[in-house]
Design a protein that fits this description.
Elements: H1 2-10, E1 28-30, E2 34-38, E3 41-48, H2 51-65, E4 73-74, E5 80-88, E6 104-109, E7 113-120, H3 121-134, E8 135-136, E9 142-147, E10 149-153, E11 161-165, H4 173-185, E12 190-194, H5 212-215, H6 225-237, E13 241-245, E14 265-266, H7 278-283, E15 290-291, H8 296-312, E16 319-320, H9 328-333, H10 336-344, H11 350-366, E17 385-389, E18 403-406, H12 413-419, E19 424-427, H13 430-433
Parallel strand pairs: 3-4, 3-5, 5-7, 11-12, 12-13, 16-17, 17-18, 18-19
Antiparallel strand pairs: 1-10, 2-9, 6-7, 6-10, 8-9, 14-15
Length: about 450
């Protein structure tokens, strides 16, 4: 339903507007009162762009522009021509979460010509998706209204994302590609994939052969390395960066289904979340698996895990390592061996132990001097980590440079930003932005 709504917005259905209706609204927009009708085809010309990008643009936008008028096509000697000029012609991926990289100028004249100017290829895509909204496809022929049009635009926020949970339910690649199509059309530039949780751990990682035999829903509901590579490349062509999330140290019950890694967990519960009562399913289930922060083996596991993630998701702007809903009272302080470790090391509270855990993880992620068990250098990154933060987690200290994603109530955003004023923030208040517990109730009912 959501994707259908997004597509309805972008294919320019006639809704009786007296000006170009573009979502999100561009930074600068001027328009006239002329109309141009396209009856034959659309021609693309490129002042400077590599051949791969040219073919990608034609492939993507022939489907978008002609979603209704399927008799039209991209060709030559057409009545409507689109000239594209891009300065950095070989740079496809968004370089960072810098909104200036998506800047573009789109000019459409009343005589049947359009021009796009952008510094990077990502800006070209943003301009073409704006053009897709200007086309009126709800007529006998494809029409452009309110000409001439000139738009200067760039996003207000460098990060605009959708978090999609592929751990509580498996979604095959074709579905994820449709999600990416919808993100590009609406100029959302990040797809945050929640890859692991209590329910399943479905991504195959080189350092852990055979793990998904235990941690996935089934042998057919997994993501192979080749599939991840395919998805990343598809996203890149559509101007979307994939952000991988491995939620640690909590929400790791599925890992405990593999007997090799079960000893790394406290509070492991053999009852799978989807077999629990409805109430627990809605809330994600009780604490069912938390990494033991006192074991050297835990950090060896995390060193290999993060190395695999960095290697597979090289183009990600940052890496998400969860960090929410860790029951430090029951699963750490209440565990005799963990409590003994705390006493021996002068660690007083569960929050203090969480901070101890974070310090070691930060060193694993960013210190390239560490080596793997085989003595080879381990993959690290200079990119920031991202963590979930909730209203009741203000005692946790996060590493310098971390990006904190807030999922509590909107009324507490000011308290959150004040508490963590030294960090960058992603705001995802559950009472507004969660599809399962936002404006409706937690069971999905509407207002």
């Amino acid at each position: 339903t959501i994707l259908l709504f997004l597509l309805a917005v972008v294919i320019g259905l006639s809704l009786g507007y007296d000006r170009p209706h573009i979502t999100p609204a561009p930074k600068e927009l001027t328009w006239g009162d002329n109309t141009f009708v396209i009856k034959d085809c659309i021609e693309f010309t490129f002042d400077k762009a590599n051949s791969e990008f040219q073919e990608s643009v034609k492939d993507i936008y022939s489907k978008v522009f002609f979603a209704v008028h399927k008799d039209l096509q991209v060709s030559h000697a057409c009545s409507f021509k689109i000239r594209i000029a891009v300065k950095n012609s070989d740079v496809m991926k968004p370089l960072s979460i810098d909104p200036t990289h998506e800047k573009y100028t789109l000019t459409i004249n009343e005589n049947g010509s359009a021009s796009i100017e952008a510094a990077y290829q990502i800006g070209v895509l943003r301009a073409l998706d704006t053009l897709a909204q200007i086309f009126n496809q709800d007529r006998e022929f494809l029409e452009l209204e309110f000409l001439p049009i000139k738009i200067n635009d760039q996003p207000r926020y460098g990060y605009r994302g959708l978090m999609f949970d592929v751990s509580r339910e498996y979604y095959p690649l074709p579905v994820l590609k449709k999600i990416i199509d919808g993100l590009r059309l609406t100029k959302i530039n990040h797809l945050h994939l929640h890859l692991s949780d209590d329910d399943s751990f479905q991504i195959q990682l080189p350092s852990f052969p055979g793990m998904t035999n235990f941690t996935a829903f089934s042998s057919k509901e997994i993501y192979t390395r080749d599939q991840i590579t395919e998805l990343i490349e598809y996203a890149k062509k559509n101007g979307v960066i994939i952000i991988p999330e491995i939620d640690i140290p909590g929400h790791m019950r599925a890992l405990g289904d593999d007997p090799r890694y079960n000893p790394l967990l406290t509070c492991y519960d053999r009852v799978r979340p989807w077999l629990m009562l409805d109430g627990n399913k809605i809330y994600g289930g009780p604490s069912a698996g938390v990494l033991n922060p006192t074991l050297n083996e835990t950090y060896s596991f995390l060193a290999n895990l993060t190395g695999d993630i960095f290697s597979m998701f090289k183009d990600s702007a940052f890496y998400h390592f969860g960090g929410d809903e860790v029951n430090t009272t029951a699963c750490w302080v209440g565990n005799p061996s963990v409590k003994k470790f705390m006493d021996e090391h002068g660690i007083e509270t569960g929050s203090d132990l969480f901070n101890y855990f974070n310090t070691i993880v930060d060193e694993i992620v960013h210190n390239s001097n560490r080596t793997q068990a085989n003595g080879k250098p381990r993959m690290t990154t200079d990119k920031p980590m991202t963590h979930w933060v909730y209203d009741r987690e203000s005692q946790i200290k996060w590493e310098k440079g971390a990006i904190l994603q807030y999922w509590g109530s909107a009324v507490n955003i000011k308290n959150f930003t004040k508490t963590y004023s030294d960090h960058k923030h992603i705001l995802s208040p559950q009472d507004y932005f969660y599809f399962d517990c936002g404006l409706g109730n937690r069971y999905g009912a509407s207002l």
